[in-house]
Amino acid sequence: MKKILIMSFLLSLVSMNFSCKKGYLDQVPDDRLTLDQTFNNRNTALKFLANIYSNMPDEASQRFAGFGNTVGQWTGGSDEAEYVWGFVTSNNINNGTYDASSSLISGFWTYFYQGIRNAGVFMDNIDKVPDLTPDLKTQYKAEARALRALYYFYLLRIYGPVVIIGDKTIAPDASFNDVQLPRNSYDECVSYVTAELDQAAKDLPALPSNDNNYGRFTKGFALAIKSEMLLYAASPLYNGNTDYAPMKNADGKQLITQQPDANKWKLAADAAKEFIDQFVPAVYDLYRVNDPSGNYSPYLSCRDVLLKDWNKEVIYANIGAGVTNRQYETTPYHQGAADEDRGAGGLGATQGMVDAYFMANGRAIDDAASGYQKTGFSDFKAPYDDQSRSTYNQWVGREPRFYVGITYNGSEWLNKNSGNVITQLWNTGNSGRNTGGNDYCPTGYVVRKNMPPSDRTQGNRSWVMLRLAEIYLNYAEALNESNPGNADVLTYINLIRNRAGIPEYGKGVPAPVGQEAMRLAIRKERQVELAFENNRFFDVRRWKIAETTESGPTYGLNISADLPDFYKVVSFENRVFSKKHYFYPLPQNDINSDKLLVQNTGW
């Protein structure tokens, strides 16, 4: 696998004598001599840059989210999925048992701000390094600037408006209590982040210079995050949201604008289109692959886009992610199978997510013309199987992305190195609740997406964090809001559908008519295409629909029963979501320390 040179320096910086003052601006160097020593040579300077990169979230390890890291609760904490284990903090998100004092929400604030501070220190001092060329100093400074902007973007989507430190230098010997800073308005934050990304992009390469540099910031990643930032800024949660009218600084500054600005959608559309025009197809393109017979395979294309390292669709991937953590969760228990085929299956897809996938004819299952059957069984050959098997009709004839994303009862397992394994998810089946003890699927559907067809214990691959399909969907969404009826809206949705192997709108499936119908079509396409890729959690929030999607009974199959009662759809959880949950609260310790910080509304 292609390695990133800088990540080989992910070592402890304890030897550099960093203090640990409490609060989100900690990790200030103890003294100027230590800082001078750090930037006295290339190796220690690059270790410092590696430490900034280390704040990048490992989203393959969401089982351990909230334990002193930047890993998110995004998959299990959305209507896509559920973790079986009680210690997983996405369960707290789903049942609303967290507040401003909960450690599960404070790590993002603490560690992203550490990365932001250290990026500023790096930029202030990199020019001192004697054994670096001017070109590398310029590039590394741009990487630090882009990382700083990225961490602000992550903070903004979690907490709403934040404190922009900018290029201020806080004295190394300052007490934290001397640092009193108010929150900036959301619009000020967006302006800062987008300007920083523009500036960084000027000095970043379009592609890594060699295999050792994969995983570093590139021009494309910077400008893709800029387009994401503008999409969020245009969305209803941030754009004219009167629910946050009370959220003001002590001086009366309104933190979220109260009047919607339609031009923000145009800015988002323009940024996405500028990215497409600049980078597609020369640098990025939708991943497409043929089967062994030489025929185009939608199934393999949609599966392997996340598995083939640095294919042309990948804009950024984390090469240090704990992929074997996720592979353990997405491999069913498989009692009696070889170790390489045995996992936990503890990350379950909800019935709602299963139902979101289209039929092979491109229609939703609630479309009378879809051919969807709710009961009964048929002989059906899945795209990864070598034979037909008796399959519950709800899972027959679905689109290729369904078979990429979901392991259902009776399906053949992906890895065939030790022979064929058939997954049995009912109570006493080989992967059922009674069989697995603490390791079983809580919904009756195991998440399969991002699982390679090989030994589940093997890592040695990157974890895709952003790909071109998302930019296409961003563009379609923003354009539909800013210029409804523009032909590009349908064009870019259809590029996604074509790659997925389902009929395009207007070519076998009627095209949505009107802005509202198109908006719903875009959201459905986004839910399916980007399933389990850490988007749904934030999408339903920025659209302000989470009070519907994330609240109330959540459904799966009857995992406590054997066949045939296993197939009954039952509620496994009653989820809690109210208006205050659109943002996480700011950590109470920092509210107490920084007297100018105001808490998010409702907390």
Describe this structure in words.
Helix content is 36%, strand content 7%. It has a two-stranded antiparallel ribbon with strand order 1-3. The protein starts with 31 loop residues before the first helix and ends in a 10-residue tail after the last helix. It is mostly helical and 603 residues long. It has helices at residues 32-38, 42-53, 90-95, 103-125, 134-159, 186-201, 219-234, 263-279, 298-304, 323-330, 351-356, 400-405, 433-436, 468-482, 487-500, 515-529, 536-542, 546-549, 588-593; strands spanning 81-83, 314-318, 347-349, 377-380, 389-392, 406-407, 446-447, 463-467, 552-557, 569-575. Mean pLDDT is 93; it is low at 1-22 and 27-33. A hairpin with an 8-residue loop joins strand 4 (377-380) and strand 5.
Please provide a brief summary of the model.
This protein has 603 residues and is mainly alpha-helical. It contains 19 helices and ten strands. It has helices at 32-38, 42-53, 90-95, 103-125, 134-159, 186-201, 219-234, 263-279, 298-304, 323-330, 351-356, 400-405, 433-436, 468-482, 487-500, 515-529, 536-542, 546-549, 588-593, and strands at 81-83, 314-318, 347-349, 377-380, 389-392, 406-407, 446-447, 463-467, 552-557, 569-575.
